[in-house]
Every structure is written in structure tokens, then in C-alpha cells.
């Protein structure tokens, strides 16, 4: 936890305690006449009948200016204030930002929370953890991106998302051993970044050793950077081979960024991996120096199965 979080937490608890104390009623002691909220003063009154005498002596009934600042008598018929937990919760929320962003990632948020349900955010990376089921919305340009954690099995719904990377990073990437189900809703565009006209990254990096399943009813356009795929392998030597990719739904357009990458499959010099297209998927894949669907330039095609759907590969 950083210093800002510690300070915010401390302030939140101070405010909560203040709200709690201010909400607590002052309870009259047994035998209290109402003139003394904390009970009758010892040694001055022996009987309740003496209250009038004490009242006159103290000046509370005589208008003494010295008593003008005394608190009002406790009214027995006035309802006691109640302790209200939501007041404290709202006060805490007002001073301390939510630690969790829930199960939705808003890519348009330039100052996102550090974590949410199934994900954490640091250094421009939303890391999706094992078992996560999240929804991604919004538009972003720059370095913010999404990464499936190593060996994680997770589900992501893209709902009207636009991501354009300005550095040599993929918009969405799968770390070693990760398995990701990507559901497409609305209209979505992902564009991988590049470091030069010859080197870039996939829009969705799903390299060898990972599993990617794409379904849904929406549309997705995946534009890779130079030497990379739209969907599959990247431009680096360690990520250029395509992984296990299955597309069962949605309208999918995958474009290589040039310099030897496939539309779907392997980056420059990378194998195509295992690719299955079925269901009602409508797929258009365009390579640039590599296959539309399959391997990148100077490599083998991989295992490609088309069971159903509509497929155009250029």
C-alpha cells in the first residue's frame, strides 16, 4: 500500500469515528430531572422537590447572562438520535477513493483504480487473474492495455471498445499458459503498437502455448503492427508462433500490419498454430507477406480447420 492510500485510510477512519461520536445520544442518568444531562450534582440536591430552588440559585430561570452558553435541557419527549451506519460509509467513500473498480474495466478512465473484481492495474497494464469474468468498455490511445496472467483461465467481454497502442505493445495479450474466452458485443477495434515500420505487435497476442476462444454477436477489427498478426503471434522471436485459436461467432476482421505477418496465425517467421473456425462466425483475414490464415512469411502453415461459418482469407 502506498503512502497516499495509507493517508486516505487514516483520514477515513478519523471521519468515521467523528460521525459515530456525533450520532451517539446523551443518556440521562437514573433520577435525572432533565436540567442536568449527566445527573444531579452531588451534595446540592437531596429531593426532586429542591429542583426549583437550585434553578433559582443557578440563575437558569432568572436570565443570568453567565448561563447563556449552557446547553438546553434534555427533552424526554424528543426522539433520541440514531446511529446511522450508511452515514459513516458515505463519509468514508467521500474521502477515500474506492479500492475496487468492480468487474468492469473502462478504458477511457485515465486514472483507474488499482484493482477490481478479477483484475489489477499498474504501469498501464490491466492484469486479468485466474477465474475472472470481466467486461471492458470505452476508448483509449496510448499505453493502456490488457494482459491475461500466466496460466490464468479467464473471460472478457468487449463491449464497444476502441484501443490504439502508441508503443510496441499488443492491445490484449495472453501470457504463457493463459486461456482466454473473448465475447464480442457491439463494435470493437483493437490496434497493436509498433516501435518502427518493421517491428510491431499483434492487436491480440495469442502466441504458442496459449488458448484463445472468440465468440459473440458483435464485430471486432484487429489490426496488427508490422511483422505481426491481427490475431495470433507477435513480432518478437519468442512470440511469433501462433497459439490455439478458435472462433465460433461474431464478425471478425483481422489484418496483419505488414512485413511478413499473417492475418490470423503466425507473425513474421512464425508458425500458424492451431486455428478452428466454426459456428456462425464471419471471418475476414488479410496477411501482408504472410498467409491470410496460417503462418507468417518463411514458415509453415500450422493446423487449420474450418467447420462452418463464412471465411475470407487474403
Describe this structure as you would to a colleague.
- The structure is a single chain.
- The protein has helices at 3-23, 51-58, 85-95, and strands at residues 104-106, 115-116, 119-122, 125-128, 133-142, 145-148, 153-165, 172-174, 179-185, 187-191, 204-205, 211-216, 219-223, 231-232, 244-247, 251-255, 264-265, 274-277, 282-286, 293-294, 303-306, 310-313.
- By secondary structure, it is of the alpha/beta class.
- The strands form 2 sheets. Strands 1, 5, 7, 9, 10, 12, 13, 15, 16, 18, 19, 21 and 22 form a 13-stranded parallel beta sheet that branches. It has a 9-stranded mixed beta sheet with strand order 2-3-4-6-8-11-14-17-20, with no helix packed on it.
- Helix 1 (3-23) packs antiparallel against helix 3 (85-95).
- The longest helix has 21 residues, at 3-23.
- Mean pLDDT is 81; it is low at 1-5, 26-75 and 80-99.
The total count of helices amounts to 3
How many strands, what sense, and barrel or not for the largest sheet? 13 strands, parallel
| Class based on secondary structure composition and strand pairing | alpha/beta
Q: Helix share of residues? A: 10-25%
Mass-distribution shape: globular
Mean pLDDT: 81
Evaluate the radius of gyration: 33 Å
Name the beta content range: 25-35%
Distance between the termini: 51 Å
E-strand count: 22
Strand and helix order? HHHEEEEEEEEEEEEEEEEEEEEEE
Oligomer: single chain
Stretches where pLDDT falls below 50 for ≥5 residues?
1-5, 26-75, 80-99
Amino acid at each position: 500500500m502506498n503512502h497516499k492510500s495509507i493517508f486516505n485510510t487514516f483520514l477515513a477512519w478519523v471521519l468515521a469515528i467523528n460521525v459515530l461520536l456525533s450520532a451517539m445520544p446523551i443518556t440521562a442518568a437514573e433520577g435525572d430531572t432533565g436540567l442536568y444531562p449527566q445527573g444531579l450534582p452531588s451534595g446540592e440536591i437531596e429531593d426532586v422537590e429542591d429542583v426549583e430552588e437550585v434553578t433559582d440559585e443557578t440563575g437558569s430561570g432568572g436570565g443570568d447572562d453567565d448561563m447563556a452558553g449552557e446547553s438546553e435541557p434534555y427533552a424526554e419527549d424528543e426522539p433520541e438520535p440514531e446511529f446511522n451506519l450508511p452515514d459513516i460509509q458515505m463519509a468514508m467513500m467521500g474521502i477515500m477513493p474506492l479500492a475496487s473498480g468492480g468487474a468492469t474495466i473502462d478504458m477511457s478512465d485515465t486514472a483507474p483504480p488499482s484493482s477490481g473484481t478479477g483484475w489489477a492495474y499498474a504501469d498501464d497494464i490491466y492484469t486479468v487473474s485466474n477465474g475472472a469474468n470481466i467486461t471492458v468498455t470505452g476508448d483509449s490511445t496510448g499505453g493502456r492495455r490488457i494482459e491475461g496472467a500466466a496460466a490464468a483461465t479467464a473471460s472478457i467481454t468487449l463491449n464497444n471498445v476502441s484501443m490504439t497502442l502508441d508503443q510496441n505493445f499488443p492491445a490484449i495479450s495472453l501470457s504463457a499458459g493463459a486461456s482466454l474466452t473473448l465475447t464480442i458485443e457491439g463494435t470493437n477495434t483493437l490496434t497493436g503498437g509498433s516501435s518502427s515500420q518493421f517491428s510491431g505487435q499483434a492487436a491480440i497476442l495469442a502466441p504458442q502455448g496459449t488458448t484463445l476462444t472468440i465468440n459473440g454477436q458483435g464485430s471486432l477489427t484487429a489490426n496488427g503492427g508490422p511483422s505481426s498478426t491481427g490475431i495470433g503471434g507477435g513480432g518478437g522471436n519468442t512470440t511469433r508462433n501462433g497459439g490455439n485459436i478458435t472462433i465460433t461467432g461474431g464478425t471478425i476482421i483481422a489484418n496483419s500490419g505488414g512485413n511478413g505477418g499473417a492475418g490470423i496465425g503466425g507473425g513474421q517467421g512464425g508458425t500458424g498454430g492451431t486455428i478452428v473456425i466454426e459456428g456462425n462466425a464471419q471471418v475476414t483475414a488479410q496477411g501482408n507477406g504472410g498467409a491470410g490464415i496460417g503462418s507468417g512469411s518463411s514458415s509453415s502453415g500450422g493446423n487449420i480447420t474450418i467447420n462452418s461459418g463464412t471465411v475470407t482469407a487474403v
